Amino acid sequence: MQKRERELHKPHILKAIKRALSPGEWKWKFCSGAREGPRKIFSSDEQARKYVNRVDVDYFVEMAGFSRGEYTLYRGMEKIKQDAYWNKRYGEASEANKKLLGTIRLWMDDEYLGARAYNALLDSPPILLTVHKTPLRKLGESACYFGTNCITVRFLGEDGGRVEGRISEIAREFHHYASWLGKGDRVRWRDGDGKPVFRRKGEEAAEALGEGVAEMLTLQLIRKHGVEGSRTRSANSVFLMLHIQEIAGEAALRKAYFCGDYTKVREKIDDAMGECAFEGILEELNRGGSWDALLMLRRMCREAGFSVDGFYERPLLKEVLKEMGSKERLPFEK
Predict the structure, then answer these.
(1) Tens digit of pLDDT for each residue in 220-247?
(2) 211 vs 141, 205, 239, 301, CA distance in Å?
(3) Whole-angstrom Cα distance, residue 264 to residue 272?
(4) Range of the domain at 228
(5) Nearest-angstrom CA–CA distance, 31 and 234
(6) Residue 334 in domain
(7) Phi then psi for 44, rounded to 5 degrees?
(8) What whole-number distance in Å separates Cα of residue 244 and Cα of residue 43?
(9) How far apart are CA 246 and CA 238, in angstroms?
(10) How many domains are contained in the chain?
(11) Closest to 316 measured CA to CA, from 219, 175, 172, 218
């Protein structure tokens, strides 16, 4: 974080700014600076793994209804059987995955991330763990542990899994971490009158934007650098975000994802589709999910005379369509 941004976080300056601004403008100002960093910074794999395991224990005890005594007994039995095997595999896979993370960080430079997220990453670099799925593990797969600098990637087989799959999973979680540092999770924009509009964290629209844009950017980034063959996890969301990107532009949507300010995206969609089109799409996301929002956007495109059919021949679109199923089941033209 730059010195000027750090100065704005001093308590007496924050109080003065808060008194001078309306509640909406104050919230906007607060969201516009990068996070000072995660609350928990891990400097070693061992520290991070202890934290991840503790999160998994809490989740397991809560969801499975085990007492902690029952859990301890079960965990002890599993530890004897599995830890020697998995620890060896962890060491082998973790080193290979960390090298891949280093390559991905070179791809995601300051021009790609934007100054805010890039500088925050320099201050709080992530630590990458390789995990495996057990009955006790909360996720057992790739995840970003928000509030810490820990991201995990699932163990993809004894040979480490296909490189394409590992690169895709690591890049996706790295996107999530960089976006969180840049406050990309605080989805907001200014309406036509310049007033701040905010989406609640945790609602379907904000979650779909976060997951869909991250997956789409990941696929585009790794293919740009010659990595083919990785599968998409949420085809409907990616398909919707590719349509939004076609209208708003890749640079505008990528910038919004890493900082949370979707004003430019809203302006471009509203200019093309009509007033309040962007908000309408997000409301449909909340009501019916990505598929219904996609149908709504397609209908808006037809009514506005805006054709997106030309980009259906692009390789990534074809891959996503294949993941979704045959074209015959799509309730609109090619």
Answers:
(1) 999 999 887 667 777 888 888 998 998 9
(2) 15, 10, 12, 23
(3) 12
(4) 188-329
(5) 28
(6) no
(7) -145, 160
(8) 39
(9) 12
(10) 3
(11) 219
